[in-house]
């Protein structure tokens, strides 16, 4: 018998959770709730996709929350103060994010520094820079913003699949293809297996590292844009702690925190589980929304314990397979 | 043996290569010439500089001086990737594999067949299956490599390199964990490559294999070139003298006449001991002062028996007794508490802690056995470390060097020392002479005999039958994960062991579980 892959466990947790919510609130199981789940967590789904690449490659990116915050402020000021067309502002910020991520990746590789430290510095840097630009919330009133927030695909049953939800689903799908079906993706797993070995196998470890952190920062930038659509404002304090939410989503999604294993679909499920808890709390109406954090914490702990147990089992697992050797 | 007579054009030329690590001069002005179609042995003691030479050539280490020419033109290879692009494929001694990826990905990482940027998984698997079939290996290539045995992993690494070797193939101790049959397959592949004009560099400590397959031999000693000879013109004694710089009393493969030791009292006894799907139940008695050898093909259940005995794997049938008292061996910890020691086969991954020093690695198991409450004093540690460094001739003899910076063979010696230092009552040695040079090899065999005379009970696993015959008082033969025969006294010789291994000769059986 094959062992259940971690992502299947995540899927089961999600389905069971959804069923429990439905049992308590009969109108929970509607396209409306489902569509809102996707919309409310669109920005988290996007950053967490980037985080999945980083963690599978054996790294971590603590800067993403700050990059989102920076992006919202940058976009708001560019559009509102400087009158830059929104699409130009988006292109500029995505380029800036790419450069920022590339720089972090290069520092990690060239100076052989722990990603934790480098991206922690990146986190302070990006957050500090957004405070420098503005300390108060800047509303965005560009016409593009109202067009985007008005756009939605109507689902049977009254749900509205919004533009930002669609962007998130597209990012997840593209991320899954990139991770699971390309050479780049295979190299990401290889790095998470062992950097030294990957180098000996002739993979350009340096440029891979740069590209992985670049991807994460660009997706954080995109998440920032989506976040600015969602809130129609830019604020330097937005998305504080989102790096931790996204790491939690990735781990709950079955990705090994030490790297080498994981899936993008799992991450999406991890994001939705967190969203599900929040939605339950909204339905209930009496619970404090901090319960989201508590339940997420418990789930995180359970998943890490589960992964450790599975690793131990794998290590002790009976005989290593021997090939058939015919003489 | 190929026609060694007409050498092809020079393919890979190394001139005046030097490399130092700090003050340690690992290579000094080494020259090396590989010709097209040649299988060239690179030999030397542990720490002679073989692996360093390879890495300096392929660009993994920057070199201090010297040039490398490929087909006559000078090349500056800056990384493992540049070497591969130039047509030089290498299996490094610390085998380059990723256990979390599938077998197929390991074979084709970085060069997967793609269409529109997407990896063509089905085609890659087909190619992988076909490639491994050349090595007579028929496995599911979609499974993670980590689920397969070490031998399968090594063959995978070799197959990748063979497939990439456009001009030069370098193999650093590829046969260390392969069985006779697998070695033969590898040799057949090497010969095929040579006839295609590819040059092969082969590093090994098995001199029989050198004489079987190599056309030429280059010997290094202490980082210097000692000489290059035709294999056919270099007698074995002379080769050993070149490697060691002294004579070696060739006593090792004789079975000592006075070996009829009186077996001591019973030390540990296993009855009906086994685990379903792992090793069939067996009876095993270990007596003081006796060496029991385990012989059999790779995957026949030798290592599995050792792991059961050491509690690394839990038995699901039978009973164990130590000194007549029943015991439960649920974990290595239980086994250590009863005076067992186990020196594993996979020393590279299971054995060493790369960042710790040689001294710390040696005292590790002894300290664990004594418990943290009774720390070994620094002077005790120094004394123990120096004793084993001298005994096993660990080089360089510096107890404070991080073990990761030692040569492969010297790392093996350190792990061996770790278990010897615990002075166990029952010691299990899995392939104790793997990757160890001829000089130290003799030392280790002598040491095994001495340990026995001191009243230790030993269980030794080895692929090298002449070695088993040399020191064993009893030999247990395994086949298809079951103990099938036991030889004692006069009956112990290579042909009897081979006969027992081959008795049913249904070696093709798939022994793994799924
Ligand atoms: N990365 C390193 N840093 C420092 N010293 C090293 C390093 N790698 C090797 N050495 C030293 O260089 C010398 C040559 O080592 P090398 O690994 O080339 O030996 P070898 O001939 O391959 O031996 P073996 O048969 O044991 O594999 C040894 O003394 C070793 O301690
Ligand atoms: Mg070596």
TrEMBL record, chain A:
Membrane spanning stretches? 42-75, 87-110, 116-134, 161-181, 212-235, 247-277, 289-306
A Gene Ontology cellular component where this protein is annotated is: plasma membrane
What are the record keywords, sorted?
Cell membrane, Membrane, Transmembrane, Transmembrane helix
The main location class comes to membrane
Where does this protein come from, organism-wise? Bradyrhizobium retamae
Xref: InterPro entries: ABC_transp_permease (IPR001851)
One Pfam family per UniProt: BPD_transp_2
Molecular functions per Gene Ontology:
transmembrane transporter activity
Q: How does it sit in the membrane?
A: Multi-pass membrane protein
Write down the superkingdom of origin. Answer: Bacteria
UniProt-annotated location(s): Cell membrane
Question: What is the recorded name of this protein?
Answer: ABC transporter permease
NCBIfam families recorded for this chain? PRK11618.1
TrEMBL record, chain B:
Please name the SUPFAM superfamilies in this protein's record: P-loop containing nucleoside triphosphate hydrolases
Q: Where is the ABC transporter domain?
A: 12-247, 260-505
A molecular function GO annotation: ATP binding
Any Pfam family: ABC_tran
- Which InterPro entries has this protein been placed in? AAA+_ATPase, ABC_carbohydrate_import_ATPase, ABC_transporter-like_ATP-bd, ABC_transporter-like_CS, P-loop_NTPase
This chain's function reads:
Involved in beta-(1-->2)glucan export. Transmembrane domains (TMD) form a pore in the inner membrane and the ATP-binding domain (NBD) is responsible for energy generation.
In the record, the note on similarity to other proteins reads: Belongs to the ABC transporter superfamily.
Instruction: Provide this UniProt record's keywords sorted from A to Z.
Output: ATP-binding, Nucleotide-binding, Repeat, Sugar transport, Transport
| Protein name as catalogued | Sugar ABC transporter ATP-binding protein
**Stretches that traverse the bilayer:** none
Superkingdom in the source lineage:
Bacteria
């Amino acid at each position: 018998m094959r062992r259940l892959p971690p992502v299947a466990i995540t899927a089961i947790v999600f389905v069971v959770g959804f069923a429990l919510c439905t049992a308590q609130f009969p109108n929970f199981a509607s396209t409306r709730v489902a569509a809102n789940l996707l919309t409310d967590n669109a920005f988290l789904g996007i950053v967490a996709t980037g985080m999945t690449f980083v963690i599978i490659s054996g790294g971590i990116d603590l800067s993403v929350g700050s990059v989102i915050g920076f992006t919202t402020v940058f976009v708001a000021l560019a559009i509102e103060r400087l009158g830059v067309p929104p699409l130009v502002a988006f292109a500029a910020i995505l380029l800036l994010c790419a450069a920022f991520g590339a720089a972090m990746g290069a520092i990690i590789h060239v100076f052989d520094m722990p990603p934790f430290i480098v991206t922690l510095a990146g986190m302070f840097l990006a957050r500090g820079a957004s405070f420098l630009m503005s300390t108060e919330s800047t509303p965005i009133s560009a016409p593009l913003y109202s067009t985007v927030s008005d756009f939605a695909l109507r689902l049977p049953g009254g749900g509205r699949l919004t533009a930002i939800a669609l962007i998130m689903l597209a990012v997840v799908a593209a991320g899954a293809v990139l991770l699971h079906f390309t050479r780049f993706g295979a190299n990401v797993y290889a790095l998470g297996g062992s950097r030294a070995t990957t180098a000996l196998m002739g993979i350009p470890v340096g440029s891979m590292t740069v590209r992985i952190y670049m991807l994460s920062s660009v997706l954080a930038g995109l998440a920032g844009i989506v976040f600015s659509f969602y809130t129609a404002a830019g604020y330097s304090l937005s998305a504080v702690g989102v790096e931790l939410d996204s790491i939690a989503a990735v781990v709950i999604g079955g990705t090994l925190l030490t790297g080498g294993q994981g899936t993008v679909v799992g991450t999406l499920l991890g994001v939705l589980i967190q969203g599900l808890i929040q939605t339950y709390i909204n339905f209930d109406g009496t619970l404090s929304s901090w319960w989201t954090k508590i339940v997420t914490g418990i789930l995180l702990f359970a998943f890490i314990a589960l992964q450790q147990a599975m690793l131990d089992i794998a290590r002790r697992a009976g005989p290593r397979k021997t090939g058939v050797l015919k003489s | 043996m190929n026609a060694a007579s007409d050498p092809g054009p020079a393919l890979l030329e190394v001139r005046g290569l030097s490399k130092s690590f700090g003050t340690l001069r690992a290579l000094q002005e080494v020259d090396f010439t590989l010709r097209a179609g040649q299988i060239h042995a690179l030999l030397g003691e542990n720490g002679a500089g073989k692996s360093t030479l390879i890495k300096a050539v392929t660009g993994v280490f920057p070199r201090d001086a010297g040039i490398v020419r490929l087909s006559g033109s000078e090349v500056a290879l800056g990384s493992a990737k540049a070497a591969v692009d130039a047509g030089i494929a290498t299996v490094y001694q610390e085998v380059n594999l990723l256990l979390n990826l599938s077998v197929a990905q390991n074979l084709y990482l970085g060069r997967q067949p793609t269409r529109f940027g997407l990896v063509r998984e089905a085609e890659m698997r087909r190619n992988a299956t076909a490639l491994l079939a050349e090595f007579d290996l028929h496995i599911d290539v979609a499974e993670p490599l980590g689920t397969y045995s070490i031998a399968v992993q090594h063959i995978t690494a070799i197959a990748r390199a063979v497939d990439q070797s456009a001009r030069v193939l370098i193999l650093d101790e590829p046969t260390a964990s392969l069985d006779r049959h697998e070695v033969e397959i590898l040799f057949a592949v090497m010969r095929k490559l040579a006839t295609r004009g590819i040059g092969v560099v082969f590093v090994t400590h098995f001199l029989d294999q050198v004489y079987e397959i190599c056309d030429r031999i280059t010997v290094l000693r202490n980082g210097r070139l000692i000489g290059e000879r035709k294999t056919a013109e270099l007698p074995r004694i002379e080769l050993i003298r070149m490697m060691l710089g002294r004579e070696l009393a060739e006593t090792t493969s004789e079975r000592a006449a006075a070996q009829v030791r009186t077996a001591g009292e019973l030390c540990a006894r296993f009855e009906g001991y086994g685990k379903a799907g792992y090793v069939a139940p067996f009876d095993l008695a270990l007596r003081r002062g006796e060496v029991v050898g385990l012989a059999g093909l790779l995957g026949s259940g030798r290592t599995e028996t050792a792991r059961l005995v050491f509690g690394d794997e839990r038995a699901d049938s039978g009973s164990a007794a130590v000194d007549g008292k029943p015991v439960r061996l649920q974990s290595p910890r239980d086994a250590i508490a009863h005076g067992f020691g186990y020196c594993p086969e996979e020393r590279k991954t299971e054995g060493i802690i790369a960042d710790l020093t040689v001294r710390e690695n040696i005292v590790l198991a002894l300290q664990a056995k004594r418990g943290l409450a009774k720390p070994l004093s620094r002077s005790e540690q120094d004394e123990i470390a120096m004793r084993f460094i001298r005994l096993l001739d660990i080089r360089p003899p510096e107890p404070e060097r991080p073990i990761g910076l030692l040569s492969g063979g010297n790392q093996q010696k350190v792990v061996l020392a770790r278990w010897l230092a615990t002075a166990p009552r029952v010691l299990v040695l899995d392939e104790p002479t793997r990757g160890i040079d001829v000089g130290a090899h003799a030392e280790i065999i002598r040491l095994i005999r001495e340990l026995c005379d001191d009243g230790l009970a030993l269980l030794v696993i080895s692929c090298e039958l002449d070695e088993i015959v040399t020191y064993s008082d009893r030999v247990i033969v395994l086949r298809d994960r079951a103990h099938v025969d036991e030889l004692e006294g006069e009956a112990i010789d290579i042909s009897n062991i081979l006969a027992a291994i081959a008795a049913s000769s249904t070696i093709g059986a798939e022994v793994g579980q799924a």
